[in-house]
């Protein structure tokens, strides 16, 4: 846990849960996994959470509830953005609902902070919040003041996000995010490993636009086809009927974070993938945040002495210069937009 962090889009990290498991290509070079298996492997919060392999330490699926860190946000006096479980996944399959309950209870007790929850387990997040939405939950916490029941969900100070490193993961995870009750919904496309089209995602036999809202009147006209598409994708249509909406619009993404990979085994990111996301956000109401190029940058911006390190299939060339030298400007501009929270209607 850290009251300060170098992560550009947040102010602090809070790790009441540590540990995870590899579920998709974006996990391959996970910085938290590497730390847990090297520099932090003997600390109580990380010990035994990774197993050695030829490629280095790998998450072994074990998770740990760090109860001594649970109340930390209650003691932070200055309001801040807090990245929740930066070294784990709050909705990992091994995390009991009771642990999640306690973490949400703390977030409910800290309305001055904004909590950013990022997960790769989008379906479990949606299912958990749907269950809690219809229950009054007693929180058995030893906190400075008792929380005897939940306030209305969604909590206005909790932002929900999913990691989407490529189009496959976008189609898998974003629909569940859109169905989850949230004040703000966002994606983290880091490491970005391929192009993303968020405006025309194929779901079953239909498509959804995750950035540009469709008026309910228009959606209802096409409801039969849309409903069949959702069913084919394994989703329960009725969840959509309970989501709070911006006026008469269906839920959309509020924020897109994009970034390249860092570290010794970092994979390069094509500039056109980032430009596409920037332009998709510019054509909608979504905020765009470009976090970093990572280890690789365009050959055009490199010293003449540098050799070409990677050539994409279309002939575009990238070189490895390191995270600091590569920077975070895109076409000469820094993009650091943040979403504007909206008023959440009460249940």
From TrEMBL:
Pfam families: DUF5131 (PF07505). InterPro entries: DUF5131. It comes from the Bacteria. This is Phage Gp37/Gp68 family protein. It comes from Nitratireductor aquimarinus. The lineage of its organism: Bacteria, Pseudomonadati, Pseudomonadota, Alphaproteobacteria, Hyphomicrobiales.
């Amino acid at each position: 846990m850290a009251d300060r962090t170098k992560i550009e889009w947040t102010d602090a990290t809070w790790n009441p849960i540590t540990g995870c498991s590899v579920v998709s290509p974006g996990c391959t070079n996970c910085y938290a996994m590497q730390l847990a298996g090297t520099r932090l492997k003997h600390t109580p919060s990380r010990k035994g959470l990774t197993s050695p392999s030829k490629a280095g330490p790998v998450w072994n699926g074990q998770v740990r509830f760090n109860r001594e860190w649970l109340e930390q946000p209650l003691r932070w006096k200055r309001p801040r953005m807090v990245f929740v479980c930066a070294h784990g996944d709050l909705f990992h399959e091994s995390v009991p609902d009771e642990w999640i309950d306690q973490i949400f209870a703390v977030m409910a007790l800290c309305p001055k902070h904004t909590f950013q929850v990022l997960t790769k387990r989008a379906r479990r997040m949606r299912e958990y919040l749907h269950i809690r939405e219809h229950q009054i939950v007693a929180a058995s916490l030893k906190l400075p003041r008792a929380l005897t029941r939940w306030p209305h969900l969604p909590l206005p100070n909790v932002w929900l996000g999913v990691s989407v490193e490529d189009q496959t993961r976008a189609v898998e995870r974003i629909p569940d995010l859109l169905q989850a009750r949230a004040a703000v919904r966002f994606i983290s496309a880091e490491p970005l490993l391929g192009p993303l089209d968020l405006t025309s995602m194929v779901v079953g036999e239909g498509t959804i636009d995750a950035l540009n809202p469709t008026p309910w009147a228009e959606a209802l006209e096409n409801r039969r086809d849309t409903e069949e598409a959702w069913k084919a994708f394994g989703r329960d249509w009725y969840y959509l009927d309970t989501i709070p909406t911006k006026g008469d619009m269906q839920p959309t993404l509020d924020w897109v974070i994009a970034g390249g990979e860092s570290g010794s085994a970092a994979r390069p990111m094509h500039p056109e993938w980032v430009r596409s996301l920037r332009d998709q956000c510019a054509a909608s109401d979504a905020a765009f945040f470009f976090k970093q190029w990572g280890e690789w940058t365009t050959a055009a911006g490199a010293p003449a002495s540098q050799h070409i390190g990677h050539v994409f299939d279309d002939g575009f060339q990238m070189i490895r210069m390191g995270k600091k030298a590569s920077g975070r400007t895109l076409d000469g501009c820094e993009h650091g937009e943040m979403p504007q929270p909206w008023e959440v209607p009460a249940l």
